[in-house]
């Protein structure tokens, strides 16, 4: 017994230290506890209500248990009390109270569940987005505007975004913690629908929330909420003719090696991520920093990360569909420089 006590005393500080360490894990922009839109606010409200009820029940149950243990503990010379039938008043009380608590939780839950299931796919005032999940990237199509993009979902602040999700391969799950709950993307004809909106301009992190392969943890995307004027300028810029590298030799290589899968503007195919305006995007391949901001200097510049991705995409995101292309170092440098400078500059 003493050995066990000594072992417990040694493990207790270690467990306490681990609890403190793990409590600091996570990111603010990947938390459902920091809602930034009406859908997330409604879901957060249900979470708070259910947790409050559970805490109340736990406190009452433990308080009653402690009271009974102390008041009716066994004492010396105690005799077995007279056994009587249960107290009808108490039985009614502990039957009615749970029913009341279930109603308090159930009514707003049903209300919000049906409210959040509203279909905006036919609403002309909502921005329609078809989300297609791939291993391991996201494709966003705007049927109202006739454009496709990838890895960064551009939306106008304050407007309802109607989303229809599907998958090109296995089951994934579309999730933007700060804006809305997750919804599965299924292969085949099964299309799931949801809607959300953002209250403020900003960038929100999205993730795949369904284990889908070796690079599941790297299947990130960004939602960029901008004012309506900036959104309209972005739509117009996405429709402009594509710009090829100024160097004819690099342009020829880019057309032969890259535009057979990708696209810039009206040039190339859109079988894989659209590269139009890639220099403006927050990330390369959804995970590598795509900015020259000094605070991210330890994570590489836009040019460095593009070069890293083109040189060996499998080293960055194992199992993805992009092969290692046979290019010379000079060609990789030229394409990386061209893409890092390919910006739409829609902000004013």
CATH class membership of the domain at 127-234: Mainly Beta
Tell me how many strands there are.
Answer: 14
Look up the CATH topology of the domain at 127-234.
Immunoglobulin-like
State the helicity in percent bands.
25-40%
The shape, in one word, is elongated
CATH superfamily placement of the domain at 127-234: Cupredoxins -  blue copper proteins
Given as residue ranges, the uncertain stretches (5+ residues, pLDDT < 50) are none
- The strand order across the widest sheet is 3-2-1-5-8
| Secondary-structure content class | alpha+beta
Strand content: 15-25%
Question: Largest beta sheet, briefly?
Answer: 5 strands, mixed
Mean pLDDT: 87
Organism: Paenibacillus albicereus
Subcellular location: Cell membrane; Membrane
Membrane topology: Multi-pass membrane protein
Family: Belongs to the cytochrome c oxidase subunit 2 family.
Lay out the secondary structure.
Blueprint: H1 2-23, H2 38-71, H3 88-116, E1 127-134, E2 137-142, E3 147-150, E4 152-156, E5 161-167, E6 172-176, E7 180-185, E8 192-196, E9 202-208, E10 220-226, H4 228-238, H5 248-257, E11 263-264, E12 267-268, E13 283-284, E14 288-289, H6 302-311, H7 313-316, H8 329-340
Key traits:
348 residues; alpha+beta; Immunoglobulin-like; 14 strands; single chain; five-stranded mixed sheet; 8 helices; elongated
General description of the model:
Residues 24-120 form the Cytochrome oxidase subunit II transmembrane region profile domain. GO terms for molecular function: copper ion binding; cytochrome-c oxidase activity; heme binding; oxidoreductase activity. Belongs to the cytochrome c oxidase subunit 2 family. It catalyses: 4 Fe(II)-[cytochrome c] + O2 + 8 H(+)(in) = 4 Fe(III)-[cytochrome c] + 2 H2O + 4 H(+)(out). It is found in: Cell membrane; Membrane. With 348 residues, the chain is an alpha+beta fold. Among the domains are: 127-234, Immunoglobulin-like; 248-340, Immunoglobulin-like, CATH 2.60.40.420. It is 38% helix and 20% strand. It contains eight helices and 14 strands. It has helices spanning 2-23, 38-71, 88-116, 228-238, 248-257, 302-311, 313-316, 329-340, and strands at residues 127-134, 137-142, 147-150, 152-156, 161-167, 172-176, 180-185, 192-196, 202-208, 220-226, 263-264, 267-268, 283-284, 288-289. The strands form four sheets. The protein has a five-stranded mixed beta sheet with strand order 3-2-1-5-8. Strand 1 and strand 2 form a beta hairpin. The longest helix has 34 residues, at 38-71. It is elongated and about 100 Å long. The model has no long low-confidence stretch (mean pLDDT 87).
């Amino acid at each position: 017994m003493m050995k066990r006590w000594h072992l417990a005393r040694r493990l207790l500080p270690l467990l306490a230290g681990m609890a403190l360490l793990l409590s600091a894990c996570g990111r603010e922009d990947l938390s459902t506890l920091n809602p930034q839109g009406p859908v997330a606010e409604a879901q957060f409200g249900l979470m708070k209500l259910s947790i409050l009820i559970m805490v109340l029940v736990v406190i009452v149950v433990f308080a009653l248990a402690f009271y009974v243990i102390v008041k009716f503990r066994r004492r010396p010379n105690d005799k077995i009390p007279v056994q009587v039938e249960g107290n009808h008043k108490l039985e009614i009380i502990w039957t009615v109270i749970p029913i009341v608590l279930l109603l308090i939780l159930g009514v707003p839950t049903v209300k919000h569940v049906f409210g959040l299931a509203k279909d905006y796919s036919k609403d002309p005032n909502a921005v329609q987005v078809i989300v297609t999940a791939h291993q391991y990237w996201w494709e966003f199509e705007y049927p109202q505007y006739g454009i496709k993009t990838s890895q960064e979902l551009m939306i106008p602040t304050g407007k309802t975004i109607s989303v229809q999700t599907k998958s090109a391969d296995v089951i994934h799950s579309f999730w933007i913690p700060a804006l809305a709950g997750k919804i599965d993307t299924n292969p085949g004809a099964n299309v799931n629908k949801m809607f959300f909106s953002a209250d403020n301009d900003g960038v929100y992190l999205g993730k795949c929330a369904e284990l889908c392969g070796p690079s599941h943890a790297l299947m990130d995307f960004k939602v960029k909420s901008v004012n309506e004027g900036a959104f309209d300028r972005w739509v117009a810029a996405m429709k402009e003719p594509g710009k090829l590298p100024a160097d004819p030799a690099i342009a020829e290589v880019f057309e032969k090696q890259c535009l057979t899968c990708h696209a810039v503007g009206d040039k190339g195919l859109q079988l894989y991520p659209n590269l139009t305006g890639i220099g403006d995007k927050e990330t390369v391949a959804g995970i590598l920093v795509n900015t020259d901001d000094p605070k991210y200097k330890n994570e590489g510049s836009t040019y460095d990360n593009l070069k890293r991705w083109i040189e060996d995409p499998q080293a960055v995101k194992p199992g993805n569909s992009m092969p290692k292309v046979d290019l010379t170092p000079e060609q990789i440098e030229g394409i990386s420089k061209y893409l890092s400078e390919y910006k739409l500059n829609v902000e004013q």
